[in-house]
Amino acid sequence: MNDGEPEPPLWEQMAQRSADLPQGERLQKVLAATGFGSRRIAEDLIAAGRVTVNGEVAILGRRVDVDNDVVEVDGAPIGVRPDLVYYLLNKPVGVITTSRDTHDRPTVVDLVPHDPRVFSVGRLDVDTEGLLLLTNDGDLANRIAHPSHGIEKEYLVEVTGGMVSAGSIRSLRTGVRLDDGMTAPAKVSQPEPGVLRITIHEGRNRQVRRMCEAVGHQVTRLVRTRIGPIADRSLQPGSWRELTTDEWRQLTEAVATATPTGSTGTIERRD
Q1: What amino acid positions are annotated as catalytic residues?
Q2: Is the pLDDT of residue 114 over 50?
Q3: Is the bond preceding 193 in cis, omega lying within 30 degrees of 0?
């Protein structure tokens, strides 16, 4: 300020400060719209230094570009882009996990809206049923599907041979040798004879089927029942729905906080 010049009125100073800030949606409005409570709660999160924009701690009054800025709360990114969609599908048996099939068989993308175009997060074999995520968010899809992020996938498995022995279950838990190497430790229980609940974080081709075969049991039915924190027992085969805001946030937080497994495996293949 030059000597002798009067200081601009407060409203003019505030207007100038606002004009100097990045343009777009107010950060607290974006946080409230993506499920973080009221704008007052969002303002408290910002004031506490728990919100960053493009890696920098945000301040009250900050505006964000919902198409380009990366907004994180406690280190977990939030979805601010309105063009991104997240579908949860209960894939039936006989449906192909691809966008197109040369034999004209039904595909998973036939079961969800065609606009915008989406792709599956990982794959399920044609004979496998259960939960599958579809999205147009490539970054999140890669982080969920890649085994290095350790996102759990839970399956209900019906096998031949009746009761699975305690020794076989112990082998499945500690790891079995397949033709492409030892499997990582898995969570395994037997809720009833001949029915296993298996939770893995790897993504090898037909892994659950091969694990069961390795201990002498053929799989007769395989159903994925959970992806990370996402489960839905009421979703009927062939039906889909959008993830809720809470589910989306839980999923992104699970990816952000997952302990790396050290795996160098490929992106998740058919189970």
Answers
A1: 125
A2: yes
A3: no
